[in-house]
């Protein structure tokens, strides 16, 4: 099992203890999740906060930091001979625990002897089995469990700032993801099925001992933002969106999107939209630096979108007025990006608004802005995705047209020509540095000529 040094985990826990001050902190690791019956399970994925503070990538664990008694305990079973018969010999839990700087391992059945029900901080639980476990442990109804706000905030503050060893992991994730994207570019052609390309993407990924950080989005219907259907035959003249990324053995994620022409060559009409999105992406990235509010970057990207759509005759009017009205949401109904780290949408299990918003910065309800997961000021050490897009969603266009929405701005008759266009999205993962930014990983082709060259 790949682990950072014991010092890394100890330092992380010590910083957390300082932030929380007193009481106890309980972290629940994940359990195996049954797929169709108990013994047939989904791929095991450890909880990211558990990984961050305790590193051990095994099911059935929980861990206690008792600040008042200066004690750290990992609760879990040692492997029995029955386990070993089925899964083979394993390093003992006690030995793994000592590698992450924890000297005490205790059977889970003892946990209630160590927990002070009124002094224990815990995070929001997204898995039902852990909700039930906590409910029974603390004698509270599931609906009445109260996660600790101070713990949520402390964990977010800590995990948001990536250290050099984490950046190495994330760079590795992006570099494998890059190979997945180059494979997709090389294996896409007219007449093939989408799933054939998805198969190649997965083959490349598994060949690097990586796993998906989220389900692959590969589709000629890119206007559907999270399209996991891969059953279409691809035709010349279509665009395919490939939004796929992997996580390393240690759980750090990459999240990259490229949009490619099925035929290997962009048409002029596709280029117009593609280069608009590319301009949004590049200019957003180039503006990144600490203290910049990410919501402003989202809005600047929208401004480029509206300016270019205006020159294509798809919208008319004053661009700033359109920005205020939220016209951009019709074409880009999602946010510019999100934090990324051990989770592909990093830390969202703790509450999206705690991650991307702050006191005095409320989430806007306009289409587009309402899906902006990261709005607050950037800090050195943040890693975020920059992923502008432009989509033509027939159902949304026809709804807005029939409601007369944005009728002073949107040229609905010209939009008729784009109803079968699909969509374009381009995404990179970017580290905020003291002096600006750094795109993680080796360059992944995104210029029109570069993409066409690879697809030749
Ligand atoms: Mn993303």
Describe the structure.
- This is Xaa-Pro aminopeptidase.
- InterPro entries: Aminopep_P_N, Creatin/AminoP/Spt16_N, Creatinase/aminopeptidase-like, Pept_M24, Peptidase_M24B_aminopep-P_CS, X-Pro_dipept-like.
- Belongs to the peptidase M24B family.
- Its cofactor is Mn(2+).
- One of its GO terms (biological process) is proteolysis.
- The protein is an alpha+beta fold.
- It has two domains: 6-160, 3-Layer(aba) Sandwich (Creatine Amidinohydrolase, Chain A, domain 1); 164-455, Creatine Amidinohydrolase.
- 38% of the residues lie in helices and 14% in strands.
- The chain contains 16 helices and 17 strands.
- It has helices spanning 6-20, 48-54, 81-87, 93-99, 128-138, 149-160, 164-187, 194-206, 268-287, 294-311, 319-325, 328-331, 352-356, 394-403, 412-415, 448-455, and strands at residues 24-28, 34-37, 40-41, 62-66, 71-75, 104-106, 120-122, 211-212, 217-219, 239-244, 246-247, 256-261, 383-386, 389-391, 423-425, 428-432, 437-439.
- The strands form six sheets. The protein has a five-stranded mixed beta sheet with strand order 6-5-4-1-7, covered by helices on one side. A three-stranded antiparallel beta sheet has the order 9-10-12, covered by helices on one side.
- The longest helix is centred in the middle third of the chain and has 24 residues, at 164-187.
- The protein is globular and about 70 Å long.
- The structure holds manganese (II) ion.
């Amino acid at each position: 099992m790949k682990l950072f040094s014991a010092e890394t985990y100890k330092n992380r826990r010590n910083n957390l203890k300082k932030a929380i001050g007193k009481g106890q902190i309980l972290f629940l690791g994940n359990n195996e999740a049954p797929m169709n019956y108990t013994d047939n399970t989904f791929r095991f994925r450890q909880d990211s906060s558990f990984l961050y503070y305790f590193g051990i990538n095994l099911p059935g664990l929980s861990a206690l930091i008792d600040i008042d008694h200066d004690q750290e305990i990992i609760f879990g079973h040692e492997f029995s001979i029955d386990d070993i018969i089925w899964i083979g010999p394993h390093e003992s839990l006690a030995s793994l625990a000592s590698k992450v700087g924890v000297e005490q391992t205790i059977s889970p059945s003892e946990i209630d002897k160590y927990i002070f029900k009124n002094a224990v901080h815990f995070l929001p639980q997204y898995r039902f089995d852990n909700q039930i476990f906590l409910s029974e442990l603390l004698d509270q109804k599931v609906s009445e469990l109260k996660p600790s706000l101070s713990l949520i905030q402390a964990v977010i503050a800590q995990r948001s700032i990536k250290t050099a060893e984490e950046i190495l992991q994330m760079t590795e994730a992006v570099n494998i993801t890059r190979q997945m994207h180059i494979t997709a570019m090389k294996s896409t052609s007219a007449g093939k099925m989408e799933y054939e390309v998805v198969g190649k993407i997965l083959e490349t990924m598994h060949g690097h001992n990586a796993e998906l950080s989220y389900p692959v989005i590969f589709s000629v219907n890119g206007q559907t933002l999270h399209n996991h259907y891969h059953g279409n035959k691809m035709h010349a003249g279509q665009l395919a969106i490939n939004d796929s990324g992997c996580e390393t053995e240690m759980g750090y994620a990459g999240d990259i999107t490229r949009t490619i022409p099925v035929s290997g060559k962009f048409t002029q009409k596709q280029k117009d939209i593609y280069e608009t999105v590319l301009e949004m992406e590049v200019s957003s990235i180039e503006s990144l630096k600490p203290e910049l509010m990410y919501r402003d970057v989202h809005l600047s990207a929208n401004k480029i979108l509206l300016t270019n759509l205006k020159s294509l005759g798809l919208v008319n009017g004053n661009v700033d007025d359109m920005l205020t009205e939220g016209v951009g949401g019709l074409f880009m109904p999602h946010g510019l990006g999100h934090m990324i780290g051990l989770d592909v949408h990093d830390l969202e299990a703790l509450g999206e608004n705690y991650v991307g918003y702050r006191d005095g910065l409320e989430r806007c309800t306009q289409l587009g802005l309402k899906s902006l997961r990261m709005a607050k000021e950037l800090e050195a050490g943040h890693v975020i995705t920059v992923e502008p897009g432009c989509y033509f969603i027939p159902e949304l266009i026809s709804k807005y047209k029939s409601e007369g929405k944005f009728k002073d701005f949107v040229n609905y008759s010209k939009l008729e020509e784009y109803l079968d266009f699909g969509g374009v999205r381009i995404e990179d993962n970017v580290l905020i540095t003291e002096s600006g930014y750094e795109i993680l990983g080796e360059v992944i082709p995104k210029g029109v000529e570069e993409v066409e060259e690879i697809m030749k």
